[in-house]
Amino acid sequence: MESSKAPETTFLRSDVMSLAQFYIPSEISKQTVGALGELGLVQFRDLNKDVNAFQRAFVSDIRHYDEVSRQIRFLRNQIEREDIKIKKCSAEESGVSKSPKELEELEQKISETEKVVIELNENQRTLDKRYLELTEMRHVIKVTDEFFESSNAKELEESNIKKSDSTTGLLKDENAVADLEAGKKSNVSFVAGVIPREKINSFERLLWRMLRGNLYMKNAEIEEPIKDPETDELVEKNVFIIFVHGQVLLNKIKKLCESVGATVYPVSESAEQRNEESIEVLARIEDLDQVLSNTRETRINKLKEIAQNIDAWNTVIRKEKAVYHVMNLLKTDKNSMIAEGWVPTNKIPEIQQCLRDAAEATGSNVTPIMNEVSYRSVPPTYNVTNKFTKCFQSIVDSYGVANYREINPALYTIITFPFIFAIMFGDVGHGVLMFLAALAMVLYEKRLANYKNEIFEMIFTGRYVILLMGAFSIFTGLVYNDCFSKPLNLFTQGTYNFRNVGNATEPGFAQQVGEHTGKVYAFGMDPVWVSAENKLIFQNSYKMKMSVVIGVIHMLFGTIISFFNYWHFKSIGELFVVFIPELLYMGSIFGYLTFAIIYKWCTYWKGAQAPGLMNMLIYMFLSPGNVDKNEELYPNQGLIQVILLIIALISIPVLLLGRPIVQKIKNKKVNTEELPTTNEVVAYSERDYKAPEWSFSETFINQAVHTIEYCLSGISHTASYLRLWALSLAHGQLSEVLWDMLLNNVIKLNLNIVLKAIAMFAIIAAWLGLTVAILLIMEGLSAFLHALRLHWVEFNSKFYKGEGYKFTPFSFRKILKKDE
């Protein structure tokens, strides 16, 4: 257990945690838990693990508030359907410290409001349905009138009772329709109604097959779509009229209409009656319009009134429900409730003050008691972040949450991540564009924080990462002397005498070497190399070696960080048998390679061919101690390489056997279970805790896997950093292609000034668009992912276990944010 005197909060390690035990009087338990939820610094532990979730004390209260939450969701849905803005509640309106009477009144108000809205919805739905029926009836009467006015026996005889576009079927009595119009008795009946337009064709086919062609049908489109009161969607519909012989066929048609969703309306055969019906329908529609308008206005006003308070209601109910969820974790003991939870040690005074304030607010004479208790389980990891460090911490946590008090890689990631990215993305122009885009998001972050878009929110969260990536890209662009694939001549150029060396008769062996004869270019790569014939060969060599140097330094830095972890946890034995062998192995092989690269860079070879480092490293293992005089890098090279090789070989068995032996000795000296002293209070949640049993064979197997992985990964991880070289060259070549294929061609065009200006404007727009789309977004995302991999796999694996779990306190702020 950590000392109660916690160090100040730093980003290097997670905060020191304590296991606290709370004794809370039952009468103020709810208010106390609510106050702790407002503070958000206690991660409660479950003291009722042996009790079924459905048999806990406050299940009925949770179900009750589930129902209230359902009512609020219903009201919110009704408000959102009408596009009414919901007022955000203030901190005072959403306070959880409400008396039982206030809560009861609030719940009753929510229930009554729901009933009122349901009643208004039913009234409006009934009126909308009636309005729909009257509107359809008006169209049916109108189309029926038009049909009977245009129908006569002569037209039917000429068309043989067949209509090319709007009629289907046959009638045996050709004068039947004309008889109906004249009011004569006839055995022909008709039915009229409305059907969705998408169903009219299938409806006609069904009628034809069912009645075997013994019908006469006409349909006409309703011009304006009709609103469906059930779905609130606009539906396009058609009016239809069907003539058949006999009541039996008429009944069949009505049943078919019912099955396909068509609505049948009674229409009189007499023109005078239809005229009267039409006048009556229009009058009723006019009256209903007024009633509907008043009903809608009443409903909208009611929803606007609810929108002013619903967020505050939801916040209060959500908090009450969360409080009961926590209270189900507490243990009941006579007149008090016992709670246990992890708390940051340096926040204990704040928590104690919160408990006193909660007791005073309720008027209780008894103050809840808080004690620190001993524990044997592993505490959670609590890394305090702000808006700047939050995204970097997320990058690390995506790999794995740090073990308790383990060094937090996010601190180093703030610098190393954008720098590694910038090595692959080095370009002054692209860096400036990225930096300005991120700077705009930083400067206007308050305005942009409310913009709801999933992709933008992801980019906005990482605005500070992008800002640093842009800044570092400007720096590496200056080192590469690259701005949109063109060099910047910021300082006085050096002078070189270029000459060919190597075997010019063999392809790939002849190259041009620049011998420096003048001033040195002040910073970055000399722009004179851009015009050199061997520009690409020079850049390949330079960036490849640079990638290896940076990669080895990055991995050695990670290995050195592990020293501080061993020292902090007082693992002195593992410091000698794990850290030192790992450092010696990595340094004697790959550290030596880095030294050789830098030594070769710093040595002036006076026109001679410099020794090849790849062959040097290979023959260091194949032929220890033997170095060809022509390939010698420095004096006594063979002896030094033999010593380094012996150191690397000795490190492997020490790394393999050291940790299991040290842990075996340690487990013999220390009892696996230390009984607490008489004055030490043991937490309820710790009484059944059993420390995991230590096994020598399991430890040996794990260490053997780690040794093999570490030794082999030294090669693969070093090679993995060559991606810095590959992506840097690819980025530069893509930028050069865009420049040469677009801007360069337009500049060379022989056109008059106006046409050339128009062409330049169009090409610059295309070039800028492709630069942003391909080089900034696609290449930037690619470099980001590669930088992520180098940190997760190559860097973190050297010191970071990442097997912890996050500190998740009971916090109303986080609960409400998650709901949003």
Automatic annotation (TrEMBL):
Superkingdom of the source species: Eukaryota
GO terms of molecular function: ATPase binding; proton-transporting ATPase activity, rotational mechanism
One GO BP annotation of this record: vacuolar acidification
One GO CC term, this protein: vacuolar proton-transporting V-type ATPase, V0 domain
Stretches assigned to coiled coil: 65-123
Keywords: Coiled coil, Hydrogen ion transport, Ion transport, Membrane, Transmembrane, Transmembrane helix, Transport
Membrane topology: Multi-pass membrane protein
Cleaved signal peptide residues: none
Location of this chain's protein in the cell: Membrane
Function comment: Essential component of the vacuolar proton pump (V-ATPase), a multimeric enzyme that catalyzes the translocation of protons across the membranes. Required for assembly and activity of the V-ATPase.
Family: Belongs to the V-ATPase 116 kDa subunit family.
Name of this chain's protein: V-type proton ATPase subunit a
Origin species: Neocallimastix californiae
